[in-house]
User: Fold these one by one.
Assistant:
Number 1:
Amino acid sequence: MPKRFISFSPTSQLPSEKKYIMPTFVTVPDPQINGTRVIIDTIGINEDLFYGSLTEAEQVFVWEKVLHRSMDEVFGMTQKRSLKRHFRFTFILNHVIDLKDIYSKADFVFRRFHVNAKSEEEYDSIHCTIVGYNIPKPVELGSFTRITATTSDFKVSANEILPWLALYGSVSTKFDYVKNSVGVRTDVIETEIRLMKHIPEYLPVAGKKIQIGYPGIPRMCIKCWGVDHLKRNCRAKKVEWIDHVAAMRATGAFSDPMFGSWIAILDQNKSH
């Protein structure tokens, strides 16, 4: 029977004599990954030290159910042993995040059920602590930076993205699809640009919704498509994506061929 997770609780319920490392904040340039890295150690199980490991499903549970984040913002995960031999796992994000919400949960416990040799259900209390963050240094306008463009599939080519990026700076002619840790090509296109003005985080490129990433990119709310706030803090009326595309087209700053099949959808909606 697979392990099941039921809850998490603050570590104030644990024995007071246990002492743990509190998070440290580090700001460093990271040429490979555009987003924040959140580093978590598993240091206790029940009332003992923990030298085991967590499955990928358990790590995902921590991210989604304990820290209340979405796996959509996770570029990848890594794991290793800390100097104290604790199991350490890191979430590598595809953008820079506000750490205030996560910092409030820097020390936490979650419970997992399992079945023992007698076919009886038991649970363990796993104690975790966030031991550090790596926050990429925001890019300065006028400087070269590595950017990523995440597509829903491989049908959007670099040539279709290039006209959009060229409106915001001087773009390198070299585009690559990023490969994951086992060498498999992902749906992330990577290139360099001399950024002259900030790029919208989401672009309607050739009939696809493309997410752009680089250090310090102004975040967009996926509810109203405004900037500098996220959906959970949004008080504005919901704006459908296609209506946002129509508003972009209406500015006249983009030619119709750049939108691809979005134009047909817009014209069809207009006819109705």
Number 2:
Amino acid sequence: MQKQLLKEPTGAYQKRFLELWEILHDSQNGYFSPQGVPYHSIETLMVEAPDYGHVTTSETLSYYIWLEAMYGKFTGDFSGFKKAWDIAETYIIPTEKDQPNSSMSGYNASKPATYAPEWELPSLYPAKLDSGAAVGTDPIYNDLKSTYGTSVIYGMHWLLDADNWYGFGRRGDGKSAPSYINTFQRGREESTWETIPQPCWDDMRFGGKNGFLDLFTGDSNYAKQFKYTDAPDADSRAIQATYWAEQWASEYGVDLETYIGKASKMGDYLRYAMFDKYFRKIGSSTAAGTGYDAAHYLLSWYYAWGGGENANWSWVIGCSHSHFGYQNPMAAWILSQNDEFKPLSRNGVSDWSKSLERQLEFYQWLQSDEGGIAGGVSNSNKGRYESWPSGTATFYGMGYQEHPVYADPGSNRWFGFQAWSMQRVAEYYYKTKNLKAKALLDKWVKWIKTVVKLEADGTFAIPDNLDWSGQPDNWTGSYTGNPNLHVKVSTYGTDLGVAGSLANTLLYYSKASGDDEARVLAKEILDRMWNLYKGDKGLSVPEQRNDYSRFFDQEVYVPSGWTGTMPNGDEIKSGVKFIDIRSKYKDDPDFQKVENAYKRGTAPVLNYHRFWAQCDIAIANGVYSMLFEGGGEPVNNSAIDPTSAAFDKKSGSQKDIKVILTLNGNTFIGIKEGNKYLTEGVEYTLTDNTVVLLKTYLAEKEVGKLKLTFDFSAGTDPVLVLTVTDSSIAAGNIQVQMYNDSTNPQVSSIVPKFKLTNTGKTSITLTDLKLRYYYTIEEEKDQNFWCDWSTVGSSNVTGTFVKMPEAKPGADYYLEIGFTAGAGILAEGQSIEVPVRFNKIDWSSYTQTGDYSFSKSDSSYADWTKITGYVSGSLKWGVEP
């Protein structure tokens, strides 16, 4: 018996997921922009973190990736997952055009940015730049540049005007959608109601004489510039979702290698969130850091970067403030422990490994006496590196903050952070059975059971806002129970997205711990939501918006004498109200309802369909189906041991690989390599619960990673990851990594990019080193070689075309790359980059897909043994064709 490649939906909870997926993708319901970008909500009149419903966030995009990953789990179709990543990369990850490398390469890692103080109130801005204040050193920039061959940063900007409602356009053109924008810029008391929307690409076309820049920072003069802000919880959620996509895709033999590479790369850059804002020393924040002494290893509230539009300068900042709600130990585990996701940079894996432990400690430090998790920590008191008041609780020298980052409203009042953040802890516990995670969840879930209300009439309520008192004990390395830190529920509600996330958390915890009460509570929440609030466009509850009087009452601070205009002509000046600089709201179909309620002195009631909330509900139902739904009975996953192994193809070193099966009530079906089942008795044997993968089969596999899916009748199918090596291959003191910049089948130029590392104990004179790239020419023509840039200088790189005396499969020519004396030496541990390109003299096409040295990976450097490297004529890397 074999499971179908594309599965039919089974069970009520899987059907719910698929029904919601269909609702979200029905174009009549309006969840997506014409460009395919998911909106924050269907409805446009909305003010919360975004100040307009069709202004979307990186959070929304990360949920889109997660939603499509789970759709692939249930259907085998991962095209939506790929599309979601492609949409994110196209529209919310700033491209090289949005952050020109010519500007970003002017970055000075020894002085990452100029200090500006943070102030409590918007009325204290602009904040004057202080070039004399201490700023530390950025220790990861050079590693990232060397690894990825660019100074451009790979992370999602947090806010996107999906319809170009404000009219800033893309890169200042005033018309293109979507458009990068920002709002929050002026201290912890600045609510959304007090913000002034501004373009990320500020070429001073809109706003005042200096665009919007002099509203926020005080300087002697201003330049046209770009600036972006990353929300680390969204990036880490995208990485988390991609991990699950890879796990689920392997069940169908679907290759997601390209997208795993994107997630890994995003994680590499996400390390900027682990550093103090101005790279000052952690716990001694008046002093400039010298490197990793500025790393707190937490996922802080943001990291940001920017530069001159047509100038060779740029800046990068981390963040001094960390909220527990942004932590993601699951993502840290993925990036530090899973080979496919490990970042390519030199320190990426070790940084994430340290972050994993630091995050778990952070949760422990902040867990209240009742079990809820308190706010967070800062390395910069008041955003100005002031001394902490006597008695302030500390974590690695940083001070406790009840509400990190913002105070209107307090950032840790919202119960949603409890569900969002602990869901990641629950996944981590489910995958690893980590004892720290278990202890955190045991106490937290016990508290949750006391604060969720399941009423006899079929309704339910979950906490909405929380009140905090006291503070944690100073962190000394172990949890004290925090008898002086307390939480109580101040208000209740039915936030459906949060309820979905809460159910998700309880389900992973239940499956990992065996606590069936947690499963029953999650099921009750999911069932009651579905029965009470399901409509044609998804799930929604009426919301009374007491804060909507601020449309009309809230003054937005503008300094006296400052004047400017929004793209639609709205005047920005001292005394304006929220609505005055957003007059387009008056044309919104819900505006009259809000205005009439304001005139009556009542609060309007509206229904919203937030994209992230629909996803949270859908995903939670999907999790129930995966973990517990199988013909109406709980499903236990089968297991294999080991889940990773190595095989050496060298003659005399080849050995069979034994795998033990734990059935857990299921039936073993077979082993799949991609979509093809292996043949029992030929490629493996099965005796009782022991599988033996035969060396005769493994010896035929290519060097690299081999994934074998062990297929069982029910539950999640485990995957064995085999590392296939060949120690007979000449190996020496160099490592060669490569990727092809263009992977189109037909190209007029072949563009391989090389990264060469000396892994030996002595320096190598580069004139002694040669690399060979093998390909087919198809039609004999003279050829041109180009090296536009290299670490050693483009003029010091040579290229020679050699016709092979005997053609091989995929190769009748090779390009031999060498170096002149001016290239110098390659020191022990040093790496150099050598991007090159070559073409026929008449620019006719090569067909490169079958070429021996061609790599289908187009995202980043990776070991590639089909490039050969020689030192003094001796083969030291790779396999000749």
Number 3:
Amino acid sequence: MVPFSIAGVQMNVSATESNLPEMKRQLDILVHRFPWVQMVVFSELAVCGPLPNYPQPAGGALEVEFQHMAAKHGLWLVPGSYFELDQGRIYNTAPVIDPQGKIVARHRKMFPFLPYEEGVEPGHEFVVFDVPEVGRFGMSICYDMWFPETTRTLAAMGAEVIIHPSLTNTIDRDVEHSIAQATAAINQCYVFDVNGVGDGGYGRSVVVGPHGNVIYEAGSGPEIVPIQLNLALIRYERQNGILGLGQILKSFRDRRVDFPVYRPESFDNGYLNSLGPLSKTTRQRSDAAPPTTDATPPAQAESGPVPLYPQSYDETGT
């Protein structure tokens, strides 16, 4: 067994005030109650909330505060993410800090939740980091996981645990749980998904095992989630298959199929381009005629045009 203990902090997040004092308080309480925890993970944008009003430079005063928090308690710290300002551009960035207070990695969210997370630049680097004598961890932020290529790449780089801060305050949290379960199963890894509450999300953080099994799902209020993981299970199942069955990563390694969709210089993107621009859905006028389609069968056309689904669409995801 290779045990490693991680605690997620699902805390109330404000969009208008600094949450740093509350993060420090929560960390102090967590370490007092669960001194065996080796890594602590906060939710996406836990320190500042979802509004990019006060971006901070990498290596600035905010990260120094995070470094002091990790060193004070001698543990690994992923303080969620914050809006990073770099040469006039804003990124959604999650630092990784070791028990000595050193920043060992920074992950910039690769898929900002467009068109709702406007003005945030995408990151371009896949981030993994090693915990000595334990294993390899990969970083992902919220909407990144909706693109399975991101976590498949992390798994192919050796990540055995995906650390995944989220900020989801929309109706699709159930969908994200399904994605987290599928991600864990198809990559034979753990997924540690920490959401916030208040302005920082609707909670329901989730920890998923390599079978796609839910180890724990939090409620919708503030909560500390300490879990001990066994990384030896990951190594066994990657060698022998999930429950002795599918050896997914080996099959991916030995594939004989190419994926032309990933070669934009030669793949025909005609259909994808036909979907139109990536923009917010506008409110439909009540007096507007419902959309029609030339593909409507004559029998249906006689009783009136068939509306295309959906006629309205709520803002979802983050």
Number 4:
Amino acid sequence: MQSFLLALVMLFALSISETQAKGSELEEIGFSFVDSDDDGYDETDACPDVAGNSTNDRIGCLDSDGDGYSDADDSWNYTDGADVFPQRSDAWSDQDGDMFADQVNLDITDDCPLKFGTSREVLFGCSDMDMDWIPDVLDTDIDGDGISNEMEVAASLVLTYYDPMDPNSVPEDSDFDTLPDAIDDDDDNDGWPDIIEQDRGSDPLDVDKTPFNQYFGINTGFFYQGGFQISSAYDAEAIEISVSGVIEIVTEELVIPFLLIPLYLYFFISKKRRFESLRDEIRCTEDGDKLYSLEQQVNSLVENRKINTLHGLILRNTIEEQENSTRRQKMGLSLEE
């Protein structure tokens, strides 16, 4: 009996202990449901000590512009979903981190939302290698080296390629006129085309050297432009009168005729000697068949231009005269007999 009573007492004590434990748990739960910052959010409040109205990334946190996305703080930043633009209710995210909004139709909308960019002309937030605010897709000089993309490609050679997206890959531009020397007709920008300066022996890379001042250290020429107009500046349409021009004519334009003179003399003398040799042979020939053979030879030489046509006519006349002379001699001998 005593054992039974002891068991009832222990059972009663255990029931009282469980009741007290459940009561304490309910008190704790009840306490956690209290909205301590009075922002209308209780157990879902991510910022229980700060009144806030954010509803998207976090519940009940500070949202300065009222767009539903909370302002960033020490424990919550942009990568967590905080509002990138806390003072604009129409913008809140920026996937590529270039401070241009992912949201469309805004004055700060990112035209390239998935790629970091700094462009601010025409397109916003797109790649801008040279930081001139013009997007690379619209920039005529992507790398900002002073030479346009088109000119860099045009100046490239088989073994030398100038990369329009590499600021360290720049074609030579001696006169800094943004035209690479490889495609610039006037590398030193002195007004004289490079091809003429090279032809005259003047330095095409020295602005102070021109074909007019390369002799005697003074200006030795001018361009006559008609009337009383003259100029020392290059003018392709004017008449050039200069020491350099005369030397060019003598050394270049007349050099071929000068070199051909010996050849002309050789052919002239050869034809003349051939003509004189044939004429002497004809005059010494009295045989008709031989004269006929010589006439055929003369025709062949004329046809093959081995003797002049005039010489051929003279030789034919000589043959005829020799034939007539031979006939008269034969007739005279016949009459004497």
